[in-house]
Amino acid sequence: MSKFAKKKDGDVPAVSTASLPDIVFMLLFFFMTVTVMKDSTLKVENTLPNASETKKLEKKDRVIYIYVGKPTSQYEKVFGSEPKIQLNDKFAGPSEVGDYILQERAKKAQELQNVLTTALKVDKNANMGLISDIKQELRKVNALKVNYTTYEGDAFMNLNR
Amino acid sequence: MSKREEVPKVNAGSMADIAFLLLIFFLVTTTIETDVGIDRIMPATTNTFKGKILERNIFRIEVNNKNELRVEEELVEIEDLKGIVVDFLDNGGAVREAPDFCDYCKGNRDVSSSDNPSKAIVSLTYTRETGYGMYITVQNELIAAYNKLRNRESQRLFQVNYSTLMEQYEHPGTSSVVKERLKERITQIQNLFPQKISEVKVE
């Protein structure tokens, strides 16, 4: 009879957690593949605008990044709330852009020095005044290839209406 | 001798914890970054254009400090910009006998608008207070207009979109022989509708 003995009521079997590691590993691999390591801490707000007619930035080693935006709340007290330029980990004025580009260019391999692109990662609430100052500086050092980094999306979403 | 003892199983209960640890490490140290954007080549400072450009070949776009868009001194909505630019570029106003007659244009052939796409210049004026978002939107619309026309011509000549040609050209798997041929086609299309966008900042 014991073969057919009824289980005691209310004895729910424990959920097997054997597949939990597999699920977590799956998540882990997902994040490992779609993300990249942070290279510099952003000290400025950086909500990029949207654009639809975009091109992919090829090889990362040929790109110099310039960030522009309002200092984040942490730095607002010291640096004010006007949009600022961030080069590497420091805030900088427009006049320092040229030196920065020359420095970064010198760090790259000889054969890449002529094919560098400057990626401008600019917050969409910044003003063109600062951007045109940067562009002027870039032209002075002959860094003519620029890429306005954007998100892929509808360009009309940039307008605050 | 007794039977050889079986190797005890390793407890895998902490595997999940280890995986979580790794996962959290990756979540904190990495970011999802975008690597797309609008490519531009700026003119060199030494490169100043000398010569005469006819007023009808210049398309003037102005964005003022309130982010209002003016085309040839008339207020227009940003949504209409692409269409107007296409009309201007594709106009082909030169007469049939003229040397710069445009035989592939499908525009209105209005004599007061651009003569030929290769002569047409888009001039973009902005102020210091113009928003960057607005600027990108305008740039995006300009490129969209050029791409629309280039796609059309590419369809006519090679039965394939210009954007597809570009994608193939930039694809890392494309062999150099194919690349050569693609480059030829791309330059041909680009010469039909060269991007001539000049930017001026006013105080």
TrEMBL record, chain A:
- Species whose genome carries this gene: Ulvibacterium marinum
On whether Transmembrane helix is a keyword of this UniProt record, the answer is yes
For membrane topology, the record states:
Single-pass membrane protein; Single-pass type II membrane protein
| One GO term of the biological process aspect | protein transport
Q: Where in the cell is it found?
A: Cell membrane
The identity of this protein, by name, is: Biopolymer transporter ExbD
User: One GO molecular function term?
Assistant: transmembrane transporter activity
InterPro entries the record matches? ExbD
Q: What is the protein's major site of localization?
A: membrane
What family is this protein classified in? Belongs to the ExbD/TolR family.
Keywords attached to this Swiss-Prot or TrEMBL record, sorted alphabetically, are: Cell membrane, Membrane, Protein transport, Transmembrane, Transmembrane helix, Transport
One GO CC term, this protein: plasma membrane
* Origin superkingdom: Bacteria
- Which ranges does the record mark as transmembrane? 12-32
From TrEMBL, chain B:
Q: Where in the cell is it found?
A: Cell membrane
Q: Name one GO cellular component term.
A: plasma membrane
Biological process, per Gene Ontology = protein transport
Q: Which UniProt keywords apply?
A: Cell membrane, Membrane, Protein transport, Transmembrane, Transmembrane helix, Transport
Q: Which InterPro entries match?
A: ExbD
Q: Which family does it belong to?
A: Belongs to the ExbD/TolR family.
Protein's recorded name: Biopolymer transporter ExbD
